[in-house]
Specification:
The structure holds two protein chains of two kinds. Chain A folds into two domains: about 1-70 and about 190-200, P-loop containing nucleotide triphosphate hydrolases (Rossmann fold); about 75-180, P-loop containing nucleotide triphosphate hydrolases (Rossmann fold, 3-Layer(aba) Sandwich), CATH 3.40.50. In chain A, about 30% of the residues lie in helices and about 25% in strands. Chain A has helices spanning about 45-55, 85-95, 100-110, 125-140, 155-170, and strands at about 1-5, 10-20, 20-30, 35-40, 60-65, 70-75, 145-150, 175-180, 190-195. In chain A, the strands form two sheets. A five-stranded parallel beta sheet of chain A has the order 6-7-8-4-9, sandwiched between helices. A four-stranded mixed beta sheet of chain A has the order 1-5-2-3, with helices on one face. In chain A, strand 7 (about 145-150), helix 5 (about 155-170) and strand 8 (about 175-180) form a beta-alpha-beta unit. The longest helix of chain A is centred in the last third of the chain and has 16 residues, at about 155-170. Chain A is globular. In chain A, about 40% of the residues are buried. Chain B has one domain. In chain B, helix 2 (about 25-40) packs antiparallel against helix 3. The model of chain B has no long low-confidence stretch (mean pLDDT about 90). The chains are: A alpha/beta, B mainly alpha.
Chain lengths: ~200, ~220
């Protein structure tokens, strides 16, 4: 059951099944405004699935989930037009999110990409692509930021810059749930350690 | 919702025209029309009799060309996931895709049909009927393309499967569309309109359901 009303994120006995395999079950946690959480665990244990489940892209197998109304997800896919310059590609999301061109400039500045505004996305390096994804994420005014490996491919200066934006979001009463193997420079209020389940208990 | 629709449609239309892919069906259509007189010979009466039907078949085949560009790239790119997270429904996404694909596919195809009918020697009322029937059918052809692209997204060999799926679904359009050329009472055009409306009406729901199924 998924309920999009509250101002905080609340999971109760949450379970997730993907391709006849139970990834996690009976997960309980609460994230309130101003708090940041980290999801850890080995590859394939269900970190991304948990974030997608909270984002509403997957249905929980059982349990209940209360989420804030506005959520943004930053995963490994661009969702930006490769042939457009960064500013043009961001403008599409700005229109959908009811933002202005000035907000686009701020988002690009927040990831240190103001000088690349007119460069088409397809010319970006791995780190620059990651920063472009983060800019798209920062552009939305969502309360809850779901970040899947946000620091992948970033240099140390960019990680520090990312930490600044995340902290500002938390200070504004926002929430962050991240899955990351690279330590994020913010204080964590919650750590969810996902462990592989014995697959004997597969319910299907 | 209208604002969202406008933004989505505008993005797709601009992308289709900017990538040049819009003109591929047109060139294909004109090639087919050019080759046909070479194959059957320059007999004017024969061309007049069969030309309209050939132009109809060419329109169906032109529908297949853009199938792999309609849904798959945006799905791979994560665009649809981002829209869903924003609370935009699969049906609205599919509806926007239908409108934007028709805008990039319908008018160029009608323009090509106008040129090609000259090669077949069609004129007067039969030319008007051909253009009218194609104009009525292009929204349905665009809808079929969006539905098939959504249904086959994520599959290997989606192109060949798309062709197989289109043939039976497009037969009603072909029967009434090509049939309208020899029909003096316009009833075939009315049936064609009914089939076209039906296909357009189910497209957002069928394609939306397919997009939802791919995500799971």
């Amino acid at each position: 059951m998924r309920n999009e009303a509250g101002d905080s994120l609340r999971a109760l006995a949450l379970s997730c099944v993907r391709g006849e395999k139970m990834l996690f079950r009976d997960l309980n946690f609460v994230l309130t405004p101003g708090q940041a959480g980290l999801v850890t665990g080995p590859n394939g244990v269900g970190k991304s699935s948990l974030l997608r489940l909270i984002a509403g892209l997957l249905q929980p197998f059982s349990g209940s989930l209360d989420t804030p109304l506005s959520i943004t997800l930053c995963d490994d896919r661009m969702a930006l037009d490769e042939n457009l310059p960064l500013s043009g590609a961001l403008r599409f999301w700005a229109r959908l999110d009811g933002k202005t061109d000035a907000d686009c400039l701020n988002a690009m500045a927040a990831v240190g990409m103001g000088h690349l505004a007119e460069v088409p996305i397809r010319y970006f390096s791995t780190g620059q692509r990651q920063r472009a994804r983060l800019a798209r994420t920062f552009l939305s005014s969502a309360n809850l930021w779901l970040l899947d490996e946000p620091a992948n491919g970033l240099d140390t200066a960019s990680v520090a810059l990312l930490g600044k934006t995340l902290q500002a979001h938390l200070d504004n009463g926002g929430m962050i749930l991240a899955a990351s193997h690279i330590a994020l420079p913010i204080a964590l209020d919650l750590t969810l350690e996902l462990a592989a389940l014995e697959q004997m208990e597969t319910p299907l | 919702m209208i604002g969202v629709l406008k933004t989505l449609v505008w993005r797709d239309v601009r992308q289709s025209y900017a990538s040049g892919g819009t003109w591929l069906p047109v060139i294909f259509y004109l090639s087919a029309a050019t080759l046909f007189p070479f194959a059957v010979g320059p007999d004017r009466d024969l061309l007049l009799q069969t030309g309209g039907g050939i132009l109809w078949i060419a329109a169906l085949l032109a529908t297949l060309l853009p199938l792999d560009r309609l849904v798959q790239p945006d799905l791979d790119n994560g665009l649809y996931d981002q829209l869903i997270v924003r609370g935009i429904t699969d049906e609205l996404i599919a509806f926007a895709r239908l409108i934007s694909h028709w805008l990039a596919f319908g008018p160029p195809l009608l323009f090509a049909a106008l040129l090609a009918s000259g090669l077949m020697g069609l004129e007067g009322s039969s030319l008007v009927t051909l253009l009218a029937s194609l104009a009525i059918a292009t929204p349905a052809l665009a809808g079929l393309a969006v539905m098939i692209a959504a249904l086959t997204s994520g599959l290997k060999g989606a192109g060949a499967l798309g062709g197989l799926l289109l043939v039976p679904l497009a037969i009603p359009l072909l029967i009434f569309g090509a049939g309208s050329l020899a029909d003096r009472t316009n009833s075939a055009l009315l049936f064609l309109s009914a089939v076209s409306l039906l296909l357009v009406a189910i497209t957002p729901f069928a394609a939306g359901a397919a997009l939802r199924a791919v995500r799971e």
